[in-house]
Amino acid sequence: MSKPTVPMYDNYIGGRWMRAASGNTSENRNPANSDEVIGNFPDSSADDALAAIAAARSAYDSWRLVPAPKRAEILFKVAQIITERKEQFARDMTREMGKVLDETRGDVQEAIDMTYFLAAEGRRMYGQTTPSELPDKWAMSMRQSMGVCSIITPWNFPMAIPSWKIIPALVCGNTVVFKPSELTPLSALNFVRVLEEAGVPPGVVNMVTGGPIIGELFTTHRDISVVSFTGSTAVGRLVNQNAAPHFKKVHLEMGGKNCIMIMEDANLDLALEGCLWGGFGTSGQRCTAASRVIVHERVHDKFVEQFVARAKALRVGDGLDAGSQVGPSISEKQLAKVMSYVEIGQNENARVACGGHRLTDGNYARGHFHEPTIFADVTPEMRIAKEEIFGPVVSVLKCTSLDDAIEIGNNVDYGLSASLYTQDINRAFRAMREMYTGIFYVNAPTIGAEVHLPFGGTKATGNGHREAGTAALDVFSEWKSIYVDFSGKLQRAQIDNNPVALTP
Ligand code: NAD
Questions:
Q1: CB of 265 within 8 A of CB of 426?
Q2: Looking at the predicted structure, is the pLDDT value of residue 499 above 80?
Q3: Distance 460 CA to ligand 1 centre (A)
Q4: pTM for the predicted model, two decimal places
């Protein structure tokens, strides 16, 4: 039987699909079966990145003048087309990044929801009108677009995260150069094709696939005004440093070490469900994954016993198989990182309560699969309690009180998401106030953000910006305050409004 031909995909620059200038390509393989090549994608160089920036720069002059409600009409069409192709896009995504179909459907749905929500801002994008302190003077503020935005994204939400950034950038009147993760170019390309089909004009969105060299140019080039990056804290720090000398606006969403806190009065069954979903959903490869569970000493042993039993029963497998609950790690490199942390945890004298091994038999042989793994007897200073692992590994820590849990919960470099299980409303509100994170849940796991609320984290997770909700508009626009003086004379703010001067 002849081998299936491997599709060849292109960059999208200035409204045209084209190969990398060098002709170089790189293969994208299925993490559940590394024999399956999804496609060959341009392994681009500086020439391609520069062409994309030039196209975006030249399209900006006309796109920024398209009325925002008209820009929005095109974006509504984007959401409609993605809705029609949802199943195909979800299947493509499972093949290229491994998470189970239910979850990739959720990823595509998030792109749909985000697009509808932010496109609607084309008819709002409210500014302020406010009284002037001076007579016969008008005062107001409005958002203005900023120019070319570079969008640099990771692989774990390969359609949702690009939509979180590209849609608000466009509705605000900016143009875009987009570099998706080299591990998930197909989902990015599916999204960009829809933008083209919906009528986004040539040059307004440009996509270049490839590695760090593209990302570096997209963070340093003089024609880039905004850099919106989601990825690891280590790369985010580099992006920030590289962009700083040019005074670009830099929006960073980075790593996490999120916790679920379980009090002795919690509904333990509910908390168990939450820990399974929060810890092992997306194989632990979510920035909001519940990689730490902090349990009150009075219910700790019972919880660990039941958590282990439930984790052992999880079905690991190819995300396209209906029965699979936990897919593979994205790559051999990511799996090696997971395994190295399992070793680190053992060397730190944490106890492997279940899992701990790569899966290699039968159907697992060609993929990057790892057993759902729970570490018990973990203490806060251990590396497995502090560092992001990004795999199906959960550390369980013991606490003596809510205050103790909050202290442990906050005592990490990251600040993305936290959650508390309790029946006590007073404790819930105290934890809500005391946890220094960007997201907090009560009686729900650390994952599950909705598109109309701000999303992002504190400390080493983020640099103060937020995506989603109307907060996304603040990343991709700048405020302009406008004063119109119709008094016909010079009026000096803070001086001519002196009450003494106003006395006849
Ligand atoms: P990564 O940092 O390795 O890569 C992210 C992107 O940056 C990729 O497109 C990559 O090619 C690019 N890049 C690499 N070097 C670069 C450079 N020098 N300059 C510019 N760009 C460069 O991250 P990843 O492995 O793709 O994603 C996993 C990480 O993303 C985890 O740490 C996870 O917590 C984080 N994440 C955070 C959020 C959030 O909202 N906080 C959401 C999803 C993922």
A1: no
A2: no
A3: 13
A4: 0.96
Task: Tell me the catalytic residues.
Answer: 253, 287
Indicate whether 495 pLDDT > 60.
yes
Helices (H), 98-232: 101-119, 160-171, 185-198, 212-220
> Separation of 407 CA from ligand 1 center, angstroms?
28
Atom of ligand 1 nearest to the CA of 461: 41
Contacts of 172 (CB under 8 A, 6+ apart): 68, 125, 143, 145, 146, 473, 476, 477
Domain boundaries, the chain: 11-254+462-481, 259-442
**Which atom of ligand 1 approaches the CA of 183 most closely?**
26
The pLDDT of residue 52 is 98
Q: At a CB cut-off of 8 Å and minimum separation 6, what does 358 contact?
A: 335, 339, 369, 370, 371
Rounded to an integer, what distance in angstroms lies between the CA atom of residue 152 and that of residue 173?
Answer: 19
Give the class (CATH, top level) of 11-254+462-481: alpha beta
Cα 446 to averaged position of ligand 1 atoms, centre (Å): 20
In whole angstroms, how far apart are CA 463 and each of 61, 250, 251, 294, 389?
29, 8, 7, 26, 21
Q: Whose CA is nearest to atom 20 of ligand 1?
A: 215
Distance 333 CA to ligand 1 centre (A): 14
Q: Which of 336, 154, 120 is nearest to 234 (CA)?
A: 154
Ligand 1 atom showing the smallest separation from residue 210 Cα: 11
Q: What does the pLDDT read at residue 281?
A: 95
* Topology of the domain comprising 259-442: Aldehyde Dehydrogenase; Chain A, domain 2 (3.40.309)
| pLDDT at res. 441 | 98
Q: Mutate which of 232, 332, 458, 467 to test ligand 1's pocket (most atoms within 8 Å of Cβ)?
A: 232
Q: Which two tokens stand for residue 336?
A: 């090696």
